[in-house]
Every structure is written in C-alpha cells, then in structure tokens.
C-alpha cells in the first residue's frame, strides 16, 4: 500500500472513530466492535469506577472478603519476607462482588537484610521506601477476623507467605480462593491467566507488580462475565467450594512421568508442595465420576495394577497451604471401582421398567 493510500485510509478510520466517540450510542458501538475483535479501549484501573450493586435482595445476603497480594524479598515462603502487604475489602454474594471497601496497604522493612536488586527492579520498591516501616499484626488480624474469604491471584504463594510471616493473624482459619487457578480463563476467551493479560482483555491498565494495584486489577477482572452472564467471581467461588482430594502418586514408575505430567500432575522435588512426599501430585474433585476416572487412569496407565495412594481431603479452608489439611488417608483404586459399580447398579435399579 502506498503512503498516500495508507494516509487516506488512516484519515477515514480516524474520522469514523471521532464520530462514534462523539455520542454515548456511538461509543457503545465502538466498544462492542473492539471487543468482538478481541480488543478494548484502555482504561486506568480506579477503585472509584468499580460498579457497585444496589439491589436490596443481593445486599441482604452480602458477606465480606478481601483481595490480597504480597510483594516479597523472594519466592521461598520459609525464608523470604513480605515487604508489602495489600488487602482490598469487598462485599459479595454467590453471583459476584457487590462493592469495594477499605484498602490496607503497608510496607515492611525486612529483618534479614536489604531487598535484593532483582526485586527492586521488578517491583520498584526500594530499601528507602520500606525503611522504618512495620506491618502491625494486630491490624492485619482485625481485618482477617472480619471476613469470610481471601482471594489471591496466586493463592498457593500468597497464603504460604502470609501464614509464615504473620502466623497469628488468622490466615490459617479462613477460606482461600485462587483467582488464577479456579477460573477457566481460556474457556472464557482469554489468551492466558496472568493478571496483566486478563486486565488488558478487559481494556484495563494498571501499575503491575505493586500489591495494591494487583488487588484492584484482580477485583476488576473477576467482575467480567462470560457469554451466559456468569461472572468469573461466581465460577471461582463455586469451584473453590467443592471438596477435593489431594492425590499423591507415590512411587510411580519413572517411565510414566510424562503420562502424569500430561494429565496435570506436578512434581514435588523437595516434598514441600506435597506434604513431605517427593512425588507427582494433583488435586482432583471429590465427586464419584472424577474419582472413578482417576482410579482407572492409575490402574490402567500408571501402575497397571490396583494401588493404594496417599491422599488428603481438601476444602477451601485448607487449600494452598503447606500445613497438612488433616490425617493422611488412602485412595484405593479397587475400592473406587467397587463404589463405581455399586453406584451404577443403584442407577440401574432406579430406572423405571416397562412391561411390553
């Protein structure tokens, strides 16, 4: 395309956009067209722009939660320290977030030494910014004691960090939900599940890698709806409230590791992610169908025999922590098969019969 034709085409596009942007109806059409193309107009995230629900029926059932994010000196929850803690309070019901509330955002000077250079480069948090600052455990405990749920975009990291850095603040006694793992973002038409990608897909920009900005971004992307009008928040909550089984493929044959990996199992190299077991592990739904499918996979493809594998029952209050969620039990594939057959027989007997 020649420069003249390109300039002419650009001028036409500019004119169309200016005309559309000149009226509310035109603006709505423009935003709809961009969204259809997988794009959006960019808006800076601002808590004051979060849509507040005023429906009395929904407000009558409101509960309270927080969106939480941490910035830390590193990735090891046992040795690294929190240098910034942000918590955005909100009210919610089963359908979504109703309104945002108070914002807690505090720096914390690390006790073990200066902030590593790579963390300063990533977060923009300098040693001068945190000098003399301390997160007050009493304030944190008061906030956590007033809520029902904690949301984090990487709950497996943030929960461990909070429980180890603030052990007496109640983080171990509240339900945690992961906004990254408990929503099928790809099925919702997103190109990934990183917070930056999700925010951009909604036409939102923010200062990433700072705890307070990340919290607000998380709240906004959870407010998005799929084609059926179901919010990401609602999907996350319903998935997280389903009891599950943390299954450990102990002593699995080495040559079957790719089978396990392809099925979503992860390797606990030092045992810290699998309650002390150096093994492949996965969290599966606790319903009969899911357990039957996993038992068949273990029996037929991994061990090629009936096995009894270590497992733990997990719920929202015990998920994403490195504390053992309860006593160790065993996932016995033979028993699961028996239960499956019994269930199938019950269903068969429950079917109506017809005399011909």
TrEMBL record:
Q: Function, please?
A: DNA polymerase III is a complex, multichain enzyme responsible for most of the replicative synthesis in bacteria. The epsilon subunit contain the editing function and is a proofreading 3'-5' exonuclease.
One GO biological process this protein is involved in is:
DNA replication proofreading
Keyword hit for Lyase: no
Give the taxonomic lineage as stored in the record: Bacteria, Pseudomonadati, Pseudomonadota, Alphaproteobacteria, Rhodobacterales
Annotated GO molecular function terms are: 3'-5' exonuclease activity; nucleic acid binding
The record lists the organism as Sulfitobacter litoralis
Q: Could you tell me the keywords of this UniProt record?
A: Exonuclease, Hydrolase, Nuclease
Protein's recorded name: 3'-5' exonuclease
Q: Where is the Exonuclease domain?
A: 64-231
Task: List cellular component terms (GO).
Answer: cytosol
